[in-house]
Amino acid sequence: MRISMVSEHASPLAVLGGVDAGGQNVYVAALSSALAARGHTVTVYTRRDNPDLPDRVPFADGAEVVHVDAGPTEPVPKDQLLPYIPALADGIARDWVDARPDIVHAHFWMSGVAALDAARRDGLRSPATGLGVPVVQTFHALGAVKRRHQGADDTSPPDREWLEPLVGRTVKAVIATCSDEAFELKNLGVDQSRIAVVPCGVDLNLFHPDGPRERARRRRIAVIGRLVPRKGGDLVIRALAQLADDGVGDLELLFVGGGSGESTLGHDPEARRLMALAQELGVGEQVRMRGQLPQASMPALLRSVDAVVCAPWYEPFGIVPLEAMACGVPVVAAAVGGLIDTVVNGVTGLHVPPRDPQAIAAALAALLGDPQRAANLGRAGRARVEARYSWDRIGRDVHRVYRRVGASSSAINPGRQQGVSL
User: Fold this and answer.
1) pLDDT of 196-224, one tens digit each?
2) CA 111-399-318 angle, 5° bins
3) What residues form DSSP beta bridges with 68?
4) Fewer CB atoms inside 10 A, N or C side of the chain?
5) Is there a contact between 323 and 292 (Cβ–Cβ < 8 Å)?
6) Cα–Cα distance between 71 and 83 in angstroms, integer?
7) pTM for the full model?
């Protein structure tokens, strides 16, 4: 099968941890590699954000990235990319003329707009059915949820409010990454019969309990991911201060993400905000900003911590808990979005209510005060990811969706496929 991925702002080649680089980059890279390993040919289309990038870059056997000229050849915040989506669709459609894909999988709502635009072009219609290329969509985050939690701080373009639901109702299938997202999609008018829940995965060969670990002078907890307010880093600092007040002082909190290296403190506004809060609460000496780390360095760091805390206001899925569980580390997770599915409360970690630093402190105290319980949660976490979240299994499940969509498309009478236009 010839598969095209469209991921307008999240290249599988990007450095992780920046404002617009995170779980989607990992997902697209890992899913593409898993599908290629099953014998498919995968091409990922993303916007060129550097004039020196080659047109095509192989990144796995059978998978490559194509950089498409769409807007300025420099980084642009993803919420400002909508004006360049027609040019992205044009570039994708031109490349498809020589190699029409069997299916397109779009990632994020603007990629869906571009994919549907490109797929409806007359020159790309199947000679057998007269139909355009079938499109499958994964949103990774929904604007309705973002607006609900961020309110006036939501920087999404206004057109997202109507375009995103239209994409969901137009594509052949939507792959939701958790049951909570499937519920939200139904509220947006997406037909339940076209929603498939397939979670994200984790690299079990890289992330595992055995192997080197960083040396730590004291007990550690970690917050891993982009440094943005919605990730709840301030809640974890407040929990750390609560623990210190309760006599649990031999503890350090690591923030991994943001700028490059520990110099991130001087340049990242969220890092400065968090450190100012830590100083105000008297725990500044216990907080370390590690900045971005290469993915290859993450397992050693994870093995060195006593718990990973994921305390976002909302979370479409969240790959970090899977990586921690794969390394045998218990997770304290806000009971939101995809974290409800992945972290089993009392089995692989502990759920806490969202935006509740006291609950985070209580959960951490329970784990730190009972090492045997923490170890049992870690072992159960590893068993869970082995059973459910390998990328090989995720690739197999996604391919089942592709096959179903391909079969339904070939059974439809020829006609003009609906598209989305700006």
Assistant:
1) 999 999 999 999 999 999 998 899 999 99
2) 60
3) 47
4) C
5) no
6) 8
7) 0.86
Q: What six digits make up the tokens of 111?
A: 């990629």
**Which amino acid does the sequence have at 352?**
V
d(CA 388, CA 289): 32
Phi, psi dihedral angles at 187 (to 5 degrees): -65, -25
Name 263's Cβ contacts closer than 8 Å, sequence gap at least 6: 291
In 167-247, DSSP assigns E strands to: 173-176, 195-197, 219-224
Reduced to 3 states (helix: H, G, I; strand: E, B; else coil), residue 61 is: coil
Question: In whole angstroms, what is the distance from residue 46 CA to residue 67 CA?
Answer: 5
CB atoms within 10 A of CB 128: 8
User: What does the DSSP 8-state code read for residue 202?
Assistant: B
SS3 81: coil
| CA distances for 53 relative to 43, 46, 70, angstroms | 16, 11, 13
Q: Are 385 and 265 in contact (CB under 8 A)?
A: no
Q: What is the DSSP string of 109-144?
A: HHHHHHHHHHHT-GGGS-TTT-----EEEE-SS-HH
**CB-side exposure of 322: number of CA atoms within 13 Å?**
24
8-state DSSP, 334: E
Please give the DSSP secondary-structure letter assigned to residue 239: H
- Of the chain, the end-to-end C-alpha distance in Å amounts to 30
Q: Quick one: how far is CA 195 from the chain centroid?
A: 18
pLDDT at 152: 85
SS3 category, 313:
coil
